[in-house]
Amino acid sequence: MLTVFVEVRSNSADSGASLRLRLRLAHPKLGVLRSALILAGLVAVLLCASVAAQDNYEIQVYGSELVPKGGTMVELHSNFTAQGRKAVENGVLPTDRAFHETLEITHGFTGWFEVGWYVFTSARSGDGWQWVGDHIRPRVTVPESWHWPVGVSLSNEIGYQRRQFSVDTWTWEIRPIVDKQLGRWYLSFNPTVDRALHGESVSKGFEFSPNFKFSYDVIKQVSLGLEYYGSLGPISNLDPIAEQQQQIFPTIDLNLSPKWEFNFGVGVGMTRSTDHMIVKMILGRRFEHFPWPRAKSRQTGH
Q1: Residue 284 — φ and ψ, nearest 5°?
Q2: Alpha carbons 28 and 43: distance in angstroms, whole number
Q3: Could you tell me which CATH class the domain 54-287 is placed in?
Q4: How far is residue 22's CA from residue 5's CA, in Å, rounded to a whole number?
């Protein structure tokens, strides 16, 4: 039997944010769908009642594996900021006590090529629920038939976000992905570079935003890990540490079924330029053949 406790508290006097989550796996054959849905529901209900979201829309360290050919992955990214920026800065809305929901749909076109599409939304008291923007992400991978000692893939993400949510309205991200499974240990490194295509940060050129994850399979169904996210500034001249964004997320991954993905983490900002406390959750479902709507065929007589 494994019992995991996750507790989130806010030091803000007016937020009253508090979350205590208890997960107990009494048997390795616990119902897959039932377990994932109950846990996801508990997290969503408790978080909505206590904390709100932040400036990040997709907080995830990528693995090299792609969606199989003909398959589709649907993911919901739910991110909250318990403590963040409280004032409008340079026309960008505050992050404190805001809730962000991102829909990601990824389809595998070949064994080495997939395309993902994102819809970003934001909700905050006084601002209502708003559409933020959309991104598209083609990705390629090194085929397994090449027998490389590590998994390797390359993601390119480009998209638009409204000015009230970002000083840069068009951005481009290049994300190399290297990962490896070593027994119960899993490691992934994303040495990401990104740049603004339109907005105030265009002059900075490419900026370095490395991500890293390691996790350990406590049992087959549960992995505990640590994720790191950084935004360090222009490659040619990194920002001073106080101006960099750096976050650490202790995480839990549930591996209850090949069809489902569940990741939960509580992040802490390590610099003054980073939102102090963030809660994130990813719930995904894999489909071998997604039931896309099809137009009805017309029958004509001659």
Answers
A1: -130, 155
A2: 21
A3: mainly beta
A4: 5
Predicted local distance difference test score (pLDDT) of residue 66: 97
- Tell me the two tokens of residue 115: 């395309």
Annotated domain spans of the chain: 54-287
**Average pLDDT over every residue of 106-132:** 94
Count other C-beta atoms under 10 Å from residue 216's C-beta.
13
The answer to whether the CB of 139 falls within 8 A of the CB of 167 is no
Residues 290 and 106: their CA atoms lie apart, in Å, by: 11
Q: Tens digits of per-residue pLDDT, 143-159? A: 999 999 999 999 999 99
Q: What's residue 291's pLDDT?
A: 65
Q: How far apart are the first and last CA of the chain?
A: 69
**Alpha carbons 154 and 156: distance in angstroms, whole number:** 7
Inter-residue contact 222 to 228 (CB < 8 Å): no
Burial class, 265, CB count within 10 angstroms (exposed 0-12 / middle 13-18 / buried 19+):
buried
Signed CA dihedral, 106, 109, 114, 115: sign only: negative
Q: What is the pLDDT of residue 140?
A: 98
264-291 average pLDDT score: 89
| Block residue for tokens 């993902």 | 116
Q: Tell whether the model's pLDDT for residue 261 goes beyond 50.
A: yes
